[in-house]
């Protein structure tokens, strides 16, 4: 208790809160980085200790500090912290509902009451061999809802975790929504009320006032009046950064307004957009601190940043001076230009690298194909070519267990007669085992999951 009191006092002393709000700017609150509390960490890559945030009410915002495992509650009126809540170790996301904080960790949900006591624990287990990339955790009418990056919605109840929708994300008003990218210029919008499909259409980004190619799209919120989307577009111009907009449409997908988000990312916050009543809040992470803005489709206000933040900024601009370091030590990063393209990988570059593998055109011959389990080079391990690889014109690099072939070398290696892909696995149930597993291109070429991601992220060695 004494430690918490001291921490509370220290927060009042050391937190620098900027009150620049005005009727012109839609800034709700800004919080400066301070050592040991809400701070950036400069090892491995520049991130910060704020994992998530939510609104307790119209005048209060709560921040989850994953480094300290505490929730810090701020008053939007006084601009100061008013409460500090200790959390169980491993908290990754949270929400506020009916006077309690609901805390999500990797296998439990903790319900913490107003006295900072754990009122209830609910256990769950993530399904095995199923992609389960957390998108957002929220409490909707007392139900613990988890949305996943693949577009599914799950619920954690007394009996554990179960999928409740394999197609839609759930939202607080009972609406269900899906926005699925179709191509570089369009996405499909599906709206569902009361388990009835009420609208489905193809939306072209040019009709939303956006230019370039559609890179990513996420739904932020839906209510009785509008839908909000987080949309990134990109161009083929080398070194040009992607453009991110918060887009509001009516329920049929017609444009109401759009707000361009400044290209300022001093650290990574997984879910920077949060719905608040008829608006959306955005958390901007700058070199100076966190800025929380309110964006409303009716007022159509733009994000006005201080003059000191007028230029582009991304944590990928930084490169550590050392490769071997103690994770407990904070390193001073060396600032270089990300636009030079030789010291970082932007989201657009990752996306472009992925499509090099997906869209690679090549011609397969019988020399590239193993139609049955084959002992490779008398190693006692076996390979078999994926079934879709048949003689003739092909698109994309095939799977190879352990594979790490560079996309621009794949075609020439295939022309040399290398075997293309290996669908044999290390699972005992495979009819082709033990499997030939190596990153070498000596006999078989292709990429596996980690090889593909490593190439997209340009990590150098295979992870």
Q: What keywords describe this structure?
A:
mainly beta, five-stranded antiparallel β-sheet, four-stranded antiparallel β-sheet
Structural write-up:
This protein has a 5-stranded antiparallel β-sheet, with no helix packed on it. The chain has a 4-stranded antiparallel β-sheet with strand order 5-6-7-8, with helices on one face. Helix 2 (347-358) packs across helix 4. It has 463 residues and is mainly beta.
**Terminal residue distance:** 43 Å
Question: What is the count of helical runs?
Answer: 4
Main sheet: strand order: 1-2-28-27-26
The total strand number stands at 37
Radius of gyration: 25 Å
> In percent, how helical is the residue content?
under 10%
Task: Note poorly predicted spans.
Answer: 5-24, 41-47, 319-343
**How much strand?**
35-45%
The gross shape turns out to be globular
Describe the main β-sheet briefly: 5 strands, antiparallel
- Quote the average pLDDT: 81
Query: Class by helix and strand content?
Result: mainly beta
Write the layout of secondary structure elements.
Blueprint: H1 2-14, E1 17-18, E2 27-32, E3 40-41, E4 47-48, E5 50-57, E6 60-65, E7 70-75, E8 81-86, E9 93-97, E10 100-104, E11 108-112, E12 118-123, E13 134-140, E14 143-148, E15 153-157, E16 160-165, E17 169-170, E18 176-181, E19 186-193, E20 196-204, E21 213-222, E22 227-234, E23 243-249, E24 255-261, E25 264-265, E26 273-276, E27 279-285, E28 289-295, E29 313-314, E30 318-319, E31 334-335, H2 347-358, E32 361-364, E33 374-375, E34 382-383, E35 392-395, H3 407-415, E36 419-420, E37 444-445, H4 449-456
Parallel strand pairs: 25-29, 36-37
Antiparallel strand pairs: 1-2, 2-28, 3-4, 5-6, 6-7, 7-8, 9-10, 10-11, 11-12, 13-14, 14-15, 15-16, 17-18, 18-19, 19-20, 21-22, 22-23, 23-24, 26-27, 27-28, 30-31, 32-35, 33-34
Helix pairs in contact: 2-4
């Amino acid at each position: 208790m004494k430690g918490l009191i001291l921490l509370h006092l220290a927060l009042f002393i050391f937190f620098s809160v900027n009150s620049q709000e005005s009727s012109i700017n839609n800034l709700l609150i800004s919080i400066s980085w301070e050592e040991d509390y809400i701070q950036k960490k400069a090892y491995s890559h520049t991130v910060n200790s704020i994992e998530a945030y939510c609104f307790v009410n119209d005048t209060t915002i709560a921040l989850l500090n994953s480094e300290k495992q505490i929730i810090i509650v701020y008053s939007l009126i006084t601009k100061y912290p008013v409460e500090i809540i200790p959390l169980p170790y491993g908290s990754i996301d949270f929400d506020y509902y009916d006077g309690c904080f609901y805390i999500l960790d990797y296998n439990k949900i903790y319900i913490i009451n107003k006295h900072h006591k754990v009122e209830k624990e609910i256990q769950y287990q993530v399904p095995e061999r199923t992609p389960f990339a957390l998108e957002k955790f929220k409490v909707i009418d007392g139900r613990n809802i988890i949305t996943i990056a693949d577009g599914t919605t799950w619920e954690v109840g007394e009996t554990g975790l179960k999928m409740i929708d394999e197609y839609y994300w759930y939202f607080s008003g009972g609406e269900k929504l899906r926005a699925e990218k179709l191509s570089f210029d369009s996405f499909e919008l599906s709206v569902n009320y009361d388990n009835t499909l009420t609208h489905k259409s193809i939306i072209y980004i040019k009709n939303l006032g956006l230019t370039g190619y559609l890179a990513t799209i996420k739904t932020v919120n839906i209510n009785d009046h509008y839908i909000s989307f987080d949309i990134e577009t990109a161009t083929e111009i080398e070194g040009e950064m992607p453009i991110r907009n918060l887009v509001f449409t009516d329920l049929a997908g017609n444009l109401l307004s759009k707000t361009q988000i400044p290209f300022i990312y001093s650290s990574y916050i997984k879910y920077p957009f949060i719905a608040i009543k008829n608006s959306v809040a955005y958390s901007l992470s700058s070199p100076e601190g966190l800025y929380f803005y309110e964006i409303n489709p009716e007022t159509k206000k733009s994000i006005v940043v201080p003059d000191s933040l007028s230029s582009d900024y991304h944590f990928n601009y930084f490169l550590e001076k050392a490769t071997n370091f103690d994770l407990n030590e904070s390193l001073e990063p060396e600032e270089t230009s990300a636009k030079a393209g030789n010291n970082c990988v932007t989201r657009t570059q990752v996306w472009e690298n992925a499509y090099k593998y997906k869209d690679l055109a090549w011609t397969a011959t019988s020399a590239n194909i193993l139609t049955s389990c084959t002992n490779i080079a008398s190693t006692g391990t076996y390979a078999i070519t994926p079934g879709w690889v048949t003689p003739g014109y092909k698109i994309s690099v095939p799977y190879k267990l352990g594979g790490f072939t560079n996309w621009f070398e794949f075609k020439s290696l295939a022309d040399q007669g290398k075997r293309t892909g290996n669908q044999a696995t290390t699972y005992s149930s495979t009819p082709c085992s033990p499997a030939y597993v190596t990153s070498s291109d000596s006999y078989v070429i292709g990429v596996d999951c980690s090889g593909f991601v490593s190439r997209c992220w340009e990590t150098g060695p295979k992870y």
